[in-house]
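Give me structure tokens for this 327-residue protein.
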Amino acid sequence: MKTRFALQLGAVAAAVATTLPAWAQSESAANYPSRPIRIIVPYTPGAINDVLARRVAQQLSEALKQSVVVENKPGGGTVIGTEYVARAEPDGYTLLQTAASHSINPSLVAKLPYDSIKSFSFITLVGTSPYVMTATPSLPANTVPELIALAKSQPGKISYASTGNGGSAHLMGELLKDMAHVDLMHIPYKGLAQGLNDVASGQVQLTFSTYTGAMAYLQPGRVKAIAVTGKERMSVLPNVPTIAETLPGYDASGWWGYVAPAGTPKPIVDKLNRELNKIVQSPEFKEHFKSQGVEMLGTTPEEFRTHVEREMETWRKLIKKANITMG
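Here you go.
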């Protein structure tokens, strides 16, 4: 009897032990955050990725009454920083500001050390920004229809610059080639500035760049804007048409969102979602980034996850069809 009683007590104790973590998580969510939060940015300091994260961190710190710090962990095409968060404790104290590369890497990186969907708890898609397709001023085409006609008359002779194989600009160019049925020559560069300089000088005819990167060349007339890559025109460039106005369905934009490690308690995810959405949807925040060509959003976790899944499928099909590699 004593043995049976001991076994029963052991079973009860084990059951209590397995239920305690869930209770503890619920308890911690009510008091979250009780210590500093880190936002991991898988890019080098500077540029829009870093600027956005630091502005968000500042305001999130004020909202939560707790320190929020940004840590840059670049490398591996964002894989190093992303893997770091995927392996972190799912307690809400390590977040990742992720970007469009999150939906591209699964189709480009062999043996990715995490699953872009299953390894994360999605919080919110905070912003999106189309790229600007710019051309050398001497190119005898000022619209997308004119560009397509010119490319069809000169197969393989019109070139476009990108920041490297598998990058956003490369995929935007390949998507244009695929949908317009034209042959353009891809010229990869190590950085945006070098590519834009060569477009300005006429050594390369086209490129796709961020709004802030393009404006430094557009304003002095060193390049001209042909179109933007989003499904709608940019409010800061209202007279520049979308590629989709000529090729319905073309939609390729940069974006930013926040995720936490998979298994982060839902009450914590929900709290972060509410606070982050309040920040990015505030008029002051929206106006500040509007001037940089970024449209602030703020979505549900489910909407963000669906967005990433949809983008993953779009780029998977294109990468396979165009036989794009990181080499």
